[in-house]
From TrEMBL:
Family per similarity comment: Belongs to the MenA family. Type 1 subfamily.
UniProt gene name: menA
Places the protein is found: Cell membrane; Membrane
Pathway per the UniProt entry: Quinol/quinone metabolism; menaquinone biosynthesis; menaquinol from 1,4-dihydroxy-2-naphthoate: step 1/2
UniProt keyword annotations, A-Z: Cell membrane, Membrane, Menaquinone biosynthesis, Transferase, Transmembrane, Transmembrane helix
Protein name, as recorded: 1,4-dihydroxy-2-naphthoate octaprenyltransferase
Organism in which the protein naturally occurs: Akkermansia glycaniphila
Pfam families linked to this entry: UbiA
Entry superkingdom: Bacteria
A Gene Ontology cellular-component term: plasma membrane
Matches recorded under InterPro entries: MenA, UbiA_prenyltransferase, UbiA_sf, UBIAD1
GO MF annotation list: 1,4-dihydroxy-2-naphthoate polyprenyltransferase activity
Role according to the record: Conversion of 1,4-dihydroxy-2-naphthoate (DHNA) to demethylmenaquinone (DMK).
Length: 296
């Protein structure tokens, strides 16, 4: 395996929809409710968000290896540090460079929108490392799903809307819609995390990584992942109203069928390498959800 491929795999490209979709959703909300969106600001927001997510993936690769959380029992995609393709130091340096890239991309947004961008950006930079590293790593404490709902959902969508339009006294409805869609995006991203943790539950339990799947057990963690999907669709009438009465018509049926298939797969697929296909399906469902919402 050449070095470029090793770096590409360490970035975990299959997980990147979780960073792309919230920015897309935020721009979609602004377009639906205001009739415009700024492509340059969207590109800078997306670049910063992806850099933070990729940095987080690199840090995870190195830190999980150092904590012996990646073992020969691993059922997920090969980790570059654990497999010896890249050194832990190299992986962490690349992660730090991506954080620097996130700062560079965000600088024009800070100049435009001021201190609120720092209030969003600084915690995001910290948790890119603190997700698995630092004195209180979230992923090791069973808080990964909560983190994803907040940062890859609520903060990312509402932050994108703020970048696009700023804030004025007449923006309450716009931000209410952004908050609802943000929670939906976060829940569907959390499904991906839950599937990943269900697959790795036995390995994580043996290495002391107390994910939510380890804490709840196999059956309850599967039901929890399905509840995230159900909650997303149960809230659709409220989201429709907030976005100005979008039509929940027949072309939502393929998406609902996809959601049903995904839930069946989550409930029935053994916790081994076959869960990797479920993870890919969860990512597809996340993208398809926002695409359908955008077309409504």
């Amino acid at each position: 395996m050449n070095t470029f491929v090793s770096f590409l795999l360490a970035a975990r490209p299959k997980t990147l929809p979780a960073g792309i979709v919230p920015v897309w959703a935020g721009c979609m909300i602004v377009w639906k409710m205001r009739g415009f969106w700024d492509m340059r600001l969207a590109a800078l927001t997306l670049a910063s968000a992806l850099c933070i997510q990729i940095a987080c993936n690199f840090f995870n690769d190195a830190i999980d290896f150092r904590k012996s959380a990646d073992t020969a029992k691993r059922q997920g995609p090969k980790r570059m540090t654990a497999s010896g393709q890249l050194s832990a130091r190299t992986v962490q340096v690349v992660g730090a460079l991506f954080l620097l890239g996130a700062c560079v991309a965000a600088w024009p947004l800070i100049e435009l929108r001021g201190w609120p961008m720092l209030a969003i950006g600084i915690p995001s930079l910290f948790f890119a490392y603190g997700y698995t590293g630092g004195p209180w790593p979230l992923a090791y404490k069973g808080l990964a799903e909560v983190f994803v709902v907040l940062f890859f959902g609520l903060v990312a969508v509402m932050g994108t809307v703020f970048v696009q339009v700023g804030w004025s006294s007449g923006d309450a409805m716009l931000y209410a819609a952004a908050g609802m869609v943000g929670v939906q995006c976060g829940l569907l991203s959390a499904v991906m995390v839950s599937v990943n943790n269900i697959r790795d539950r036995a390995e994580d339990a043996s290495s002391g990584k107390r994910t939510l799947a380890v804490r709840l057990g196999d059956a309850k963690s599967r039901r929890l992942a399905c509840s995230f999907i159900v909650a997303t669709y149960v809230t659709m009438p409220h989201v429709s109203k907030a976005l100005g009465g979008i039509q929940l018509s027949w072309y939502w049926l393929p998406l609902i069928l996809l959601a049903g298939v995904l839930m069946l797969k989550i409930l029935r697929t053994p916790a081994d390498k076959r869960m990797n296909g479920v993870l890919a399906l969860a990512a597809l469902h996340l993208v398809a959800f926002v695409a359908t919402l955008a077309c409504s």
